[in-house]
């Protein structure tokens, strides 16, 4: 056992054993290591010899020559070259990512020529330079998320082992876990919330929304790495953009751990600097496998509340002048206009300007509201203009009144008139009580003069005046009386009435009528009482002759009746002579006077003068019976005295 080259060193043997031709076993380790081969037992020939030795720890080829000599001194040689190699084969791999979106993975191997290479137990053939190219069909990974973070569950062909070994038995093993993610991170828009907390669907935001700030709520895969949210105008350069780039790689697990594949995330939108108009929301997502997805949603923004100028006429902002009203309005933009009075819809239309005619159905306070909503009307958070006014329709505008100073009275006229007051556009109905016919006075002038034709007797009229929310009813009553009141009278006479200037008149009259009697120098007025009779004293002139006492009766209907009588005023002599001619008391008195005259021949001149003066007075004032009787008695006694004296 000798080195075949100078660089080869013969190591000591660990164990040298032999079996001789007799079958005996020999331990030759010490003799072998001493290199004293002559110390071998004599006359012993070996059938087998085993040398166990450890090569020097020098990685190289070790070349040895073994020489065998038999007992006949015949010899033979054999060469042994042993390479000491404890270094694993080198391995260079390329094109093996930790994650890919390609189903077929092709990677290259560069290692020692002649090495043995297996891919998960499948041999791989190397070329003479130790190079190979391997294609593997990967199994798609499953992306999941637990309560804390996302992860990839990798299994199947995406988990493989690469083993390379050389002839010395040195080997290297590499385990690979490839995340194969073929899926783009598609998203689902859950909804959009605005600054007021109102939520919209993707369809709703195509109509204008009142949103200046808000959030997109989107369901996304849990493995999104980067995202950019952009809101850009369709017709201008206005846009906002925000982006996020992920840094923390999701872990890979080989255990089939349950988890969620999607997660709901919110993305903030800030549109405060954007003008109203048409926009597109675009959300670009990139996952760890560089799969990309761009989601786009149309967005219409309208944050401007319409402004409406409106007025109601005739009237002011606090008062109606009439129940018939007109509305006019002008909006700053096209809007849906709703006009209500006391909560009742009066007018509804869409436009920029318009108007309406309407009527109120009662007086008093009214709440008048105009509401305008622009194109955001379909949204909960709409741009809403609302203006309400409390306007009063004064009841005094519809106050009714009838002026008829004859109501309840008595007239002789064939017609009477009443003045009626009504509110604007109000009807008047009137009828005669007991008549089935009603008469309409159409709306028109506020003041109406109504003429009533009267029938003899009591007339009653029912008048109904509309006062917008109610009807005022009036009942007018009047009695027509065209019959002159009863009137007749006569003088109440006594024996000396023709001589008197104060006469007594009595007569018959109509109850309640006014009476007036008069002469040339006197007049009397009185009201006929319920007895229907009267008696008055009235003076006539002192001049003799016929005098007229006239009378006039006027009832409450102003009907009149005239009546008159003639009365005689006489001087006393005329009266006396007429009385005597009529065989009245004066006949006796005249006879007596004549007798006294005869008897008074002898009466003294003084007595005659006195008597003449008395006669004159009697002619002026009428006879005083007591005085005449006294004078007659005096005359008689005086004559007796004279006659008695004559004889002596």
Describe the structure.
- The protein is mainly beta.
- It folds into seven domains: 2-83, no CATH class; 91-180, Immunoglobulin-like, CATH 2.60.40; 188-301, Immunoglobulin-like (Sandwich); 308-393, Immunoglobulin-like (Sandwich); 397-480, Immunoglobulin-like, CATH 2.60.40; 487-569, Immunoglobulin-like (Sandwich); 572-645, no CATH class.
- The protein contains five helices and 47 strands.
- The strands form 13 sheets. Strands 27, 28, 29, 30, 31 and 32 form a six-stranded mixed β-sheet that branches. A five-stranded mixed β-sheet has the order 34-40-39-36-37, with no helix packed on it.
- A hairpin with a 6-residue loop joins strand 36 (428-432) and strand 37.
- Helix 2 (572-581) crosses helix 3 (585-599).
- It is rod-shaped.
- Residues 635-648 have low confidence and may be disordered.
